[in-house]
Design goal:
The chain contains 22 helices and 10 strands. By secondary structure, the chain is an alpha/beta fold. It folds into 2 domains: 323 residues, ABC transporter type 1, transmembrane domain (ABC transporter transmembrane region fold, Up-down Bundle), CATH 1.20.1560; 238 residues, 3-Layer(aba) Sandwich (Rossmann fold). A hairpin with a 2-residue loop joins strand 9 and strand 10.
Length: 596
């Protein structure tokens, strides 16, 4: 039996169309349409007392006007019927809210799940063009904007539609001439929408962009706090951030002014219609075309109709904001920079660890400079290769190609004889360990940070890993040992402790390929020695790629590859390259020169 994919997966398969917000909203509830239909049915029932009140009032006024012995009995009968309508409201309303809330909450879940899934699928190049805080805004604020729009439609919009239907049907049955008059209000509402449509779209799009920029600037401010305080730049930073808040304030005032001007314009227009309706229904009473009760009913219904049309119009700002949120989410859900792994064969398991660059060149997009040119290099299983060169030589780009974060513009990168582009890179990366220059830790325990993504790692195994990473003494001194919280981003740890935790995180995976990206560049001498000895154990019998500025980290490398201007200019052992007195010799000399 074929299992249907989750609804959020369908949003990644062409059902999210940012240029067609209406269809996208429909698709967002693809697995909740039964709930939505049930909620609509319950809404019709629970709103019936409010919708039928003018009819009941009109019938009571007519009974009083005509008088007679049975007048009061008729009024009691009408009141009893109306009481029965009121009686169902609490239970039906609660049932409606449960169905509607369930559908909306599930829609939020589907949409956020789709966003997270797509963010995990997008290539590294996508994130070079987007700020993290802007992406967070999309997941939080834009999804909430779509939820707010749906709630407006389910409450305000649905109520307005029901009133229009009730009023039109009753008027057509009792006085078709008034029904035609009532229906004039709908084109008037459409005309108002047309007048404001473009301005609303422009203002809400601008407001969203300003909000994303504000979130990005606030995030940057928090990240830069130590630097700001160290240089006494608090007033400068405060002034800069306040200018961003000022732009948000001005843009918010423009949005609020436009929204309220739209609301007041619609109120004035429809109050004029209501005044005209009062005069017209009075004329019909004078000429004996309708009764006094009918006049009261029509005037009340027309007031409800005006309110319904205004309710529809009040949805319009939320509709504009929701449509802009759909376009914003489309930047993620419709992005083309995807790393496509589905359907590709898995990487060899276990890896042998042979990596071959065959005439590889790489150009950055959007006209940026060439990063690598005609790189050909074979790395044998278990071999340690160090990449050195000045900044911008192409070292990190070469390693990113080896991980599969980037794809060659020309040529190929092969792993154990197979092109990386032809395999599921996820199965390959599960067998590698990466120790970056800046260790990323989350606000969890030490155990959770080391075993991130793994299950059922025994304490015995973990303590052995910590010993190999030179962390045993440090961890035993912690108040809660392995279960000690590290704080946000591991703020309570020194640089050397953080790097050794990154080594432990790599060791616990028993990787066949190890990537070291300037892992000791920011450490003091004592910390570097501890990290170096841990790195020796990490790289033993494993294929290792080292990106290094400090040449002290590459003493044990089997080969050193010197890059310059995106090309390999020298290859050999440290002794061989020093003897050649070439590019490597000059770089090494710069690190050994002592100040006068």
């Amino acid at each position: 039996m074929e299992v249907s994919p989750p609804a959020w997966e369908k949003l990644l398969d062409g059902r999210f169309e940012s240029k067609r917000p209406g269809r996208t909203l429909w698709n967002l509830f693809s697995d909740q349409r039964g709930r939505v239909a049930g909620a609509v049915a319950l809404y019709v029932i629970k709103q019936s007392p409010a919708s039928l009140l003018p009819l009941a009032v009109g019938m009571i006024v007519d009974a009083l006007t005509k008088g007679g012995d049975g007048a009061f009995r008729k009024i009691l009968f009408i009141a009893a019927g109306y009481f029965l309508l009121l009686l169902q409201n609490p239970l039906v309303h609660t049932s409606f809210v449960r169905l509607m809330s369930g559908a909306l909450r599930h829609m939020q879940f589907n949409l956020r799940s789709a966003l997270v899934e797509r963010l995990q699928q997008l290539s590294i190049t996508f994130y070079e063009e987007k700020q993290t805080s802007a992406l967070q805004t999309k997941i939080l604020r834009d999804v909430d904007a779509i939820d707010g729009l749906c709630r407006h439609l389910m409450h305000t919009g649905l109520n307005g539609l029901l009133v229009i239907l009730y009023v039109t049907i009753i008027a057509l049955v009792k006085q078709p001439l008034l029904a035609l008059y009532f229906l004039v209000t709908v084109p008037a509402g459409v005309a108002l929408l047309k007048l404001f449509d473009r301005r609303f779209k422009e203002q809400y799009q601008a407001m969203r962009v300003e909000t994303e920029q504000m979130n990005a600037r606030v995030g940057e401010m928090l990240q830069m706090l130590p630097v700001t305080r160290a240089h006494g730049l608090e007033s400068v930073e405060t002034r800069d951030v306040r200018s961003v808040f000022e732009r948000i304030r001005e843009r918010g005032m423009q949005v609020d002014t436009l929204t309220e001007f739209f609301a007041s314009s619609s109120w004035f227009t429809f109050m004029c219609f209501q005044l005209a309706c009062l005069v017209f229904s009075a004329w019909l009473v004078v000429h004996h075309r309708i009764s006094v009760g009918d006049a009261v009913m029509y005037h009340t219904y027309f007031g409800m109709l005006i309110g319904a049309v205004q309710q529809f119009l009040s949805v319009f700002p939320a509709l504009a904001q929701g449509a802009d949120a759909v376009r914003s989410l489309g930047e993620v859900l419709e992005a083309e920079q995807l790393e496509r792994n589905e359907g590709k064969p898995s990487a060899p398991n276990p890896l042998r660890g042979e990596i071959v660059f065959e005439n590889v060149s790489f150009n950055y997009p959007r006209g940026r400079e060439v990063a690598l040119s005609e790189i050909s290099l074979q790395i044998k299983p278990g071999e340690t290769i160090a990449f050195v060169g000045e900044s911008g030589a192409g070292k990190s780009t070469l390693v990113n190609l080896a991980i599969g974060f980037r794809q060659p513009t020309t040529g190929s990168v092969k792993l154990d004889g197979r092109d990386l582009r032809a395999m599921d890179l996820r199965t390959y990366r599960r067998q590698i360990g990466v120790v970056p220059q800046t260790t990323l830790l989350f606000d969890g325990t030490l155990r959770e940070n080391v075993t991130y993504g793994l299950e059922q790692v025994s304490d015995a195994t973990l303590w052995k890993i910590l010993a190999d990473a030179n962390l045993t003494e440090f961890v035993r001194a912690l108040p809660q040992g392995l279960d000690t919280p590290l704080g946000e981003s591991g703020a309570r740890l020194s640089g050397g402790q953080r790097q050794r935790l990154a080594i432990a995180r790599a060791l616990v995976r028993n990787p066949r390929l190890v990537i070291l990206d300037e892992a000791t560049s920011a450490l003091d001498t004592e910390s570097e020695q501890l990290v170096q000895s841990a790195l020796v154990r990490l790289t033993q019998d494993r294929t290792t790629l080292i990106v290094a500025h400090r040449f002290s980290t590459i003493r044990h490398a089997h080969r050193i590859v010197v890059l310059h201007g995106g090309r390999i200019v020298e290859t050999g052992t440290q002794a061989e390259l020093l003897a050649q007195r070439g590019q490597f010799f000059r770089l090494a000399a710069l690190q050994t020169v002592k100040p006068a």
